[in-house]
Amino acid sequence: MHAELQLDNQICFRLYTASRLVTQAYAPLLSTLGITYPQYLVLLVLWEKDNQPVNVIAHRLQLETNTVTPLLQRMEKLGIVSRKKGEQDKRQQIVSLTLKGKKLEEEAFAQVLSGMGEQLSTCPLKLEDYQRLAQELDSIIETLKK
Q1: Helix, strand, coil % over all residues of the chain, rounded to 5
Q2: pLDDT at position 29
Q3: Where in the chain are the domains?
Q4: Among 82, 92, 141, 146, which is least packed, fewest CB within 10 Å?
């Protein structure tokens, strides 16, 4: 067997495992807010800047609009966001936070950040390690997008 093909030598396996475990760690924290991890990601985009077109949200999350649209429909049913036609381009859908969606930001700040901090408290990485790791992951993402 080629050593390069051993599971332990695959960066893709580590990335996959880390992603799966991080998403798993977020799940109970987000369930107390009544949202899923993908919904949380949409909220992060809207908390940064409200009233975004669907295609901008999709681009920011590096997803296709046909993946984001059903997610937004579920969020609208939960009363977290509202959707309306664009004023200048009626084909465009603008997504806005409702009052409930805006209130979730403070709850997420209080519960999710502290909860993840607690789960990672025994990890030997420091803040600057996470920042460096984020930059390195961004490099991988940008390279693979091309």
Answers
A1: 70, 10, 25
A2: 96
A3: 3-145
A4: 146
